[in-house]
From TrEMBL:
Name this polypeptide is given: GOST seven transmembrane domain-containing protein
A single cellular component GO annotation: membrane
Keyword check for Membrane: yes
Main location: membrane
Length: 512
């Protein structure tokens, strides 16, 4: 029982380990990659993707032409190269002198690979197991006990000939007739083939295109979000033009974030559309999409921060903390850009899990800094408005605080769901719904931007959001000031209030 458990966990670890650093590329290239030892086998992970069942069921799949309406995995110029030392040990007249197996399996069939069902921790067949007739010596152990599906897991054999150092797989298209998460492994059971490398590529295709099934729904989602940003931008532009005389600096910042959001979604949509039609992600297009995303994320957080500080509403400038705000923005942009580049441009085995952690942690810490700074600034802004008894602006900031608090609670809840989802689906068996995780963050960002647009929309009553109108409001509320020497003029009152307002801002800057 213990050996059986060890064998099962060996295959499970092999599957999980292959997920680390995997990119969403439908053309998987192998550039002189080496095999890794696992149990008594040597393996190389050739790729894993969610594939939908072919629209037209056909078992005769071999063809050099694209298979319209079919899901398939195509082996293209896959070549194995063994060491000269290994080749020199073979007789040049031998018809077969070494075996490499390509194993394609659906993740639900993982228990059918290896000797766990034979109470063994081996992946390759041993002489003892071969004597029982359970497997073929020198090959990967595969349990075939399903009379309705004897061909799966799919096993494709490639033999070395004589004492040659290279052998090439025969071109073949493996048609997928069942929806699932599929894994491809190249496996060697012969210890004399240690040091063998692989080069070439495999092409993975769904019925409607090359987009991996895990991210295919995101193309339509990004198209929908592009239209949503376009609609928001149109409404904002009309208000902007209608009340252009009452525009403040904050409105230009909001306009820039809307424009960047629109560009980000549009570029991502066209990137995915190109990916779907060609199977490749052009580096220049992907770089633009990543950069737009990083700039938009940075400016969105800066917008929330300066709004929380009361910029343009409670005080005309950020004062001495402007440099600190800009520094935080620059650091966040650099950290986010690095993380996005690794996620979108990395190849199958380029980056390990530790590398990703080193990039994720700084972004998480910077997000925490933004959140703490935003809410501490909001508290000071609300306190200042309460002291001045400016009820219109106080109500505005209360609504903004409520919206921000709701978004934070939703974010915490979604992070918990995401951790639960990933912990319970390490092999991506729920790949068909995984797209909703990144989609949620885009929707939340859009929702917060829409709330800001509603609360700070340009209007013919700028006194509710404009700092310039603040002195007039205070004068109307407080009335005429009387002193022992008589009545002060309106200009004197406005001048004093402006001086006091600037003094308050300077004092607040010192505290921050």
């Amino acid at each position: 029982m213990e050996n059986r458990s060890i064998g099962f966990w060996a295959v499970w670890i092999l599957l999980v380990g292959s997920l680390i650093g995997v990119s969403d590329a439908s053309i998987h290239e192998y550039k002189n990659e080496r095999f890794t030892v696992r149990a008594n086998a040597r393996f190389f992970h050739g790729g894993s993707e969610g594939l939908y069942a072919s629209t037209f069921q056909d078992v005769n799949a071999s063809s050099d032409k694209p298979l319209k309406g079919k899901s398939f995995i195509r082996f293209d110029e896959v070549t194995f190269v063994r060491t000269m030392e290994s080749a020199s040990k073979q007789n040049p007249m031998q018809s077969t002198s070494g075996l490499v197996e390509a194993i394609i399996l659906e993740v639900k069939d993982r228990e059918r690979i290896g000797g766990s069902f034979l109470k063994s921790d081996d992946i390759c067949c041993t002489p003892e197991l071969a004597d029982t007739g359970s497997c073929t010596l020198g090959e990967v152990i595969i349990r075939r006990d399903d009379s309705n599906n004897l061909e799966w897991p799919r096993q494709i054999k490639t033999f070395f000939r004589g004492n040659k150092t290279e052998t090439k797989m025969s071109p073949e298209d493996v048609v997928i007739n069942k929806t699932g998460m599929y894994y491809l492994y190249f496996m060697i059971c012969d210890p004399e083939l240690d040091g063998t490398i692989i080069r070439g590529r495999t092409v993975w295709k769904n019925p409607d295109g090359y987009l991996p099934g895990k991210v295919a729904p995101l193309m339509k989602f990004f198209g929908f979000m592009s239209l949503a940003y376009l609609l928001l931008g149109l409404v904002w532009f009309l208000r902007f033009v209608q009340f252009w005389k009452d525009i403040i600096q904050l409105h230009y910042h909001i306009t820039l974030v809307i424009a960047l959001g629109m560009c980000e979604m549009a570029v991502k949509y066209f990137e995915y559309a190109n990916f779907d039609s060609t199977g490749m992600r052009p580096m220049d297009v992907t770089l633009w999409a990543v950069t737009f995303s990083s700039i938009k994320k940075t400016l969105s957080r800066l917008l929330l921060l300066v709004v929380s500080m009361g910029y343009g509403v409670v005080k005309p400038t950020l004062g001495g903390i402007t440099s600190r705000v800009l520094l935080l923005g620059v650091i966040y942009f650099v950290a986010t850009e690095a993380l996005e580049l690794v996620e979108h441009l990395g190849n199958i085995n380029d980056f390990s899990g530790k590398t990703m952690i080193y990039l994720v942690i700084p972004v998480a810490l910077l997000d925490a800094c933004f959140i703490l700074w935003i809410f501490s600034s909001l508290a000071r802004t609300l306190e200042k408005l309460q002291i001045k008894r400016n009820m219109a602006k106080l109500e505005l900031y209360r609504n903004f605080t409520n919206a921000l608090a709701i978004s934070v609670l939703l974010s915490i809840a979604w992070i918990g769901f995401e951790l639960y989802f990933n912990a319970n689906d390490p092999l991506s068996e729920l790949w068909r719904v995984a797209w909703i995780i990144p989609a949620f963050w885009n929707l939340l960002s859009y929702g917060l931007l829409a709330v800001i647009c509603i609360l700070w929309a340009p209007s013919n009553n700028p006194t509710r959001y404009s700092y310039l109108a603040e002195t007039g409001d205070d004068f109307e509320e407080e009335g005429v000031s009387l002193t022992g020497s008589g009545i002060k003029s309106t200009s004197d009152i406005e001048r004093n209030e402006l001086i006091y307002g600037l003094a308050d801002d300077i004092e607040e800057d010192k505290r921050e």
